[in-house]
Amino acid sequence: MTTHDIPATDPVAHLVRRRPDAPVFFFRPDRLAETARRFRAEFPGQVTYAVKANPAPEILETLASAGIAAFDVASPEEMARVRAAAPGAVLHYNNPVRSGDEIAAGRARGVASWSVDRASELDKLSALAPGTEVSVRLRLPVAGAVYDFGAKFGADPDVAAELLRQVAARGLTPSMTFHPGTQCTDGAAWARYIHAAADVAARACVPLARLNVGGGFPSHRDADAPDLARIFDAIGSAARTAFDAPPTLLCEPGRAMVAEAVTLCLRVKATGAEAITLNDGVYGALGEWRDLPPAARIRVVSPDGAARRGDPVRRVVFGPTCDSLDRLPDALPLPGDVAEGDYVLIPGMGAYGAALVTGFNGYGARDVVTLGAAE
Ligand SMILES: *Cc1c(COP(=O)(O)O)cnc(C)c1O
Question: Can you give the residue ranges of the Orn/DAP/Arg decarboxylase 2 C-terminal domain (predicted)?
Fold first, then answer.
């Protein structure tokens, strides 16, 4: 990854000056720090960051200096990245399935908290990581998320109650966790889970040390920014109603924390009446597009920095590789006067953009330009 620094905060100034032919991630550390501060000020509990959304060193370092002190990791590689960027940070290993070697790697790096969704994983942990916090991961059928995370991980309420009893019986610190999905726009998704978690804890007769309400907070994809404060209120009030003595709450946002900090800039390689070819695609930074298209707020500028303002025309969009699957699923409305050499600026691409780049066929966005920092 190449990082250049340029003082201006406007990506177009950089484009006009440098005319990059390869894709560029424009990173705004000030925006990331601002989002972290907002989560810390408004979420009714502790705020951690789900590293998988974007594990780049500059992201982890910015979050650590904005006061994010704990990170949700899912692999030894993610632990190493956090330790390199923020040596004193607290690690939560919330991938519920781990090999014995991965547990040992977590122990060696001082993991403070783990999650489980089945008895066999609890057996491994109580042997290999005695005395730590173990969160039982609950799942419910969920409406309103783009993906259903319960399809892979989580214990149904009866199993969760039994696991929670076992966690307490084995002298581990009992907590619970869930993950409602991703890009959930309705606080009700969390409230249902919070009530169900309180019910599981009551049935198990085990008071929870902490309740981790996962990630899933929405990023800005439509014309209007999502209302995070309303979701935070729904979470806080559900916890107060569901528990007599609410446990400490914890969240682990990925997408909503980092998305707005990065604008992806792609270049138009060729145009035709019906199709357009860009310099990155679904094997690169647009890997999530099939499930979650970033529809609104795209702008196109000429190499001189002039905004293209033609009436929108829907065109098929191909990526740069020689694979015929390398196209966006739906035609994309772009200004009718878009031309070869133009730049397409896509805001809100900080989450699951860089993290999903494959490098297939030698393509895939790599370059990061940090905006607002000294040269
Ligand atoms: C992916 C993931 C997150 C982050 O999800 P976002 O939708 O990006 O906020 C948080 N917790 C767990 C357990 C996850 O798997």
Answer: 260-350
